[in-house]
Amino acid sequence: MTGNLDEKEISKAKAGQKANFPRGIPQCGADALRFGLLSYTCGGSSVNMDILRIDAYRKFCNKLWNATRFALMKLDIIKMGAENFDQSAFKPASKAMVSLLSETFCLLLKVLSLGYCTRVFS
How many CB atoms lie within 10 A of CB 53? Predict the structure, then answer.
């Protein structure tokens, strides 16, 4: 026996995995898993994780990452650095982007602090 599972349970689990995921389980990554677990904690006490939903979160997190990288390339913020951050030196487009980002972040914090996290993930 390897681990804490009986051989019968291991063979049953392997058969179930082959039936449910004939092409294997897609790689998701830590960020998508965290995002998925956070979305499940908002729904109640039981977690019935759907790997396809987690895979969709992986794709969403990847889009967020790419959008952030693109925005940082185009905005003045990256050139300034955190130590000499001066918003008055921004171009108008950069000011608008930073303002929208700040509003979005404040709204997200408010929604999460009020316990409405199901609205964030719906």
Answer: 15
Residues 56-98 pLDDT 10s: 888 888 888 888 888 777 765 555 555 666 667 677 877 787 7
20-31: pLDDT as tens digits: 878 877 788 888
Cα–Cα distance measured from residue 9 to residue 122, given in angstroms and rounded to the nearest whole number: 35
CB of 34 within 8 A of CB of 60? no
Residue type at 45? Answer: S
- In angstroms, rounded to a whole number, what is the distance separating the alpha carbons of residues 13 and 19? 10
Distances (CA, A) of 75 to 2, 79, 97, 100, 101: 54, 8, 8, 13, 13
